[in-house]
Design goal:
7-stranded parallel β-sheet; 346 residues; alpha/beta; 9 strands; homodimer
Chain lengths: 346, 346
């Protein structure tokens, strides 16, 4: 990690309250940007773009250059992990990503040196961004949470009720825990390598944490995340960790912020911000949680909600962001308005 | 409503604590039952089955006869409302239901007498069930929540982020509220007609309540539900109302139980039962919330979770049920085990 990179996101994630708050957006480099669509067309596919260091670095910097955001997040995908573990990942237009095959626990016993080699384009991209991004801005690396990756790896694709992974866990909990544990090894190694290449903040996206029963949430989200964060904190001094257990219950968010060791928590669209400030704000920094569809809608509905978010978080360490990723149909002007309104302090 | 029907579900929904608790399952009449699959094949389609009173009544009674459940829930579908409002509803194997066309607010101005006529097969089915179901058991009517119906009616099909309905609400909130209000009229009338035909308990399924921002949850879930419940309570003395704001946050469940006037609340799979007992149990009866995938998995994972649910709810009015509907792949024996374990008190 660059020793010198200590921007407002890093500071806020560490618990300092900043006014105005730092602002970035999940999936800020993406299809809503004309310059992204151009780069994507040139690369030929989403995956090529992820795996071409120069192109990935260029795309990473696009929204920072356009909007002056406080942080860049490396353009990559959570499915680089199953790729590193040996399965072909397919991104096709109009459908979600799919894996060529699902995994069994045995198949995961792979050599960390092999993982690193397959993921070297990601680290090269991070290194390029680190060289180009000015020191005042933070640089975010990310991974999928172990549970979310397990959902893809057990099902072969996104699944609204995570059927294959849940059934595996219910029917053979020990075997499933071993599976999660190998994923954790790979995830922790991937995070540390991103930090070594220049990231000073990391985010763990557990996009499928919602809907899990209490015990499953504990065993499959809290425990693996705790193990990942512990290893990252041990190996990469100074990095700040943001966790995103999307769709968790309030009790789930409380447990997550108490148990996992994250510095900050990203709140999904449904989390009432006032309640989060009360119950989580004393413990970790908060990030979120404008509905991406409000960013699409714009107008007074968006403006009112931004004002409400800023007012509710005035006394805590807060990072302005969405409750989920930017949608492709988002008007670029609305993103500029969002950033300007956050910066204006209302 | 039958004046004489006062079973354990009705009593528990009204706040009496029963040991063992009453037990029924959402979507208890469905594809996991061989006798259902036979009836379904004979009817030719799901929709035919819904709209044939004799067949719908027979299917309604199947799980009650097989498992001795404490209540029957009429075999029907939440999309009878868009059907009543004039759109063709299509159920095709392998995909979710779809509407032929989406709705605009203007199209909804329809004559209540017309609605009732189009829905008369539903009331005939209810009447047949009421005649055949023994008086010790309760008879449940149901509707979709206004928001959930609006999601289908705006989108034409289920939508993971409810994009069309949310955008409509964000961009033109007054127009969208009028749309919800007309749906509420139809929903309230449909509930009252079900009660008149024999239902003594009703459930409002707001299956798409999850993920909504705080203000949207208030405007699109709480307010319409409050208006529906008030009209039902006014018109149908003695009926008990169960609400199911699936995926709501804890603050959302709290508001729902405080504001809407429901007698009982059905908890989705993610709600930690102990927390629900603490924060909601003093106000309303609780129903739920075994993961339907645990009912598929069976074994000790299912048994342990049932025991945990029963132990946690020992001191409150509780209705044993799932956190969502029974899945088609559920082994029939697991349902029998679930019922037996609840009845055995562990």
């Amino acid at each position: 990690m660059s020793e010198e990179r200590r921007g407002t996101l890093w500071r806020t994630a560490g618990g300092e309250k900043k006014t105005p708050p730092p602002v970035w957006l999940m999936r800020q480099a993406g299809r809503y940007l004309p310059e992204y669509r151009e780069a994507r067309a040139k690369a030929g596919s989403f995956w090529n773009l992820c795996m071409n260091p120069a192109a990935a670095a260029a795309v990473t910097l696009q929204p920072v250059n356009r909007f002056g955001l406080d942080a860049a997040i490396l353009f990559s995908d959570i499915l680089v992990i199953p790729h590193a573990l040996g399965k072909r990942v397919m991104f096709e237009e109009g459908t979600g990503p799919r894996l060529e095959q699902t995994f069994s626990a045995e198949e995961l016993q792979r050599d960390p040196a092999q993982w690193r080699e397959k993921l070297s384009p990601v680290y090269e991209a991070m290194d390029l961004v680190a060289q180009r991004l000015d020191r005042a801005r933070d640089l975010i690396g990310f991974v999928g949470g172990a549970w979310t990756l397990a959902v893809y790896m057990a099902e072969g694709e996104a699944s609204k009720d995570q059927r294959a992974a849940r059934l595996w866990g219910y029917r053979n909990s020990q075997d499933f825990k071993r599976f999660l544990s190998v994923i954790c090894d790979c995830v922790a190694a991937h995070l540390c390598a991103q930090v070594a290449a220049g990231a000073n903040v990391i985010q763990i996206f557990d996009s499928w944490a919602g809907g899990l029963p209490e015990k499953a949430f504990h065993d499959w989200v809290i425990s693996p995340t705790k193990s990942i964060v512990a290893r990252v904190k041990e190996s990469c001094a100074g990095v700040k960790v943001i966790g995103f257990p999307r769709g968790a219950t309030q009790a789930g968010y409380e447990l997550y912020t108490r148990e996992t060791g994250v510095d900050a928590v990203s709140l999904d669209t449904a989390v009432p911000i006032g309640r989060a400030v009360e119950t989580l704000g004393g413990r970790v920094a908060l990030q979120g949680n404008l509905d991406p569809l409000l960013l699409v809608a714009g107008g007074s509905a968006m403006a009112d909600e931004i004002d409400r978010l800023l007012a509710a978080t005035a006394d805590v360490a807060f990072i302005a962001n969405l409750g989920h990723g930017v949608l492709p149909e988002t008007p670029v002007e609305h993103v500029a308005e969002f950033v300007a309104r956050v910066r204006a302090g209302r």
